[in-house]
Amino acid sequence: MVDRCICMNSTFQALIATAREHGLGLEGLIEQTGCGERCALCLPFIREALATGRTAFDDDEAQALFAETRASDAQRSGVTRQAD
Ligand code: FES
Questions:
Q1: pTM for the full predicted model
Q2: Which residues, in sequence order, are CB contacts of 11 under 8 Å at separation 6+?
Q3: Is residue 2 within 8 Å of residue 54, measured between CB atoms?
Q4: pLDDT digit string, tens, across residues 25-35
Q5: If you measure from the C-alpha of residue 76 to the centroid of ligand 1, how many angstroms do you get, rounded to a whole number?
Q6: Which of 18-22, 50-54, 57-61, 76-80 has the lowest mean pLDDT?
Q7: What pLDDT digit, counting tens, does each position of 25-73 carry?
Q8: Ligand 1 centre distance from Cα of residue 7 (Å)
Q9: Which residues form ligand 1's pocket by a CB distance below 6 Å?
Q10: Distance 80 CA to ligand 1 centre (A)
Q11: Which atom belonging to ligand 1 lies closest to the Cα atom of 39?
């Protein structure tokens, strides 16, 4: 189960509450809490939490979010995978 930024020991539930209380988006939340500034592994989860309000993710959901993030990052950087 993934439910927090490990580096800052902040739950996604607490982060969403902070975002709502202060009207913060992703960048503002990162700036205010420090979450996402160290290893950045929590960023896909924070994005998802901000978009959907979900604050806990099982292992399969976590793997899917990482895969989506990798695909999105590759697409933005223009990297494409060649079929064999
Ligand atoms: S887990 Fe959030 S910055 Fe490392």
A1: 0.85
A2: 3, 4, 55
A3: no
A4: 999 999 999 99
A5: 22
A6: 76-80
A7: 999 999 999 999 999 999 999 999 999 999 999 999 999 998 988 888 7
A8: 4
A9: 5-8, 35-42
A10: 27
A11: 4
82 pLDDT tier (thresholds 50, 70, 90): low
Q: How far apart are CA 44 and CA 33, in angstroms?
A: 16
Dihedral pair phi/psi, residue 10, rounded to 5°: -120, 125
C-alpha 39 chain-centroid distance: 11
Burial class (CB in 10 A: 0-12, 13-18, 19+), 44: buried
Output the 3-class SS for 5-57.
ECCCCEEHHHHHHHHHHHCCCHHHHHHHHCCCCCCCCCHHHHHHHHHHCCCCE
